[in-house]
Specification:
The protein has 83 residues and is an alpha+beta fold. The protein has a single domain (2-82), classed as Glutaredoxin (3-Layer(aba) Sandwich). It has helices spanning 12-28, 40-45, 69-82; strands spanning 2-7, 32-37, 53-56, 59-63. Helix 1 packs across helix 3. The radius of gyration is 11 Å and the shape is globular.
Amino acid sequence: MTHIQILGTGCPKCTKLAETAKAAADALGLAYELEKITDINKIMSFGVMMTPGLAVDGKVLMVGKVPSLEEMKTVLAKEAKSV
């Protein structure tokens, strides 16, 4: 199972990133768990200083932007295959 983590305090961009990640994972048919990490200390423990951030299985893949659905699908498909 792929573990998708949204790193952000709950701002509109963080919410949009979570929605985009969910839509992409659903479209790809991934078995996944989506976790929203809002604690600033936990976010910083990933080395992320700008939100939103996207991590898959603990590996930070994106920081400070919300990709298009197609970009997200590409990132998740590549990461799900490498697991």
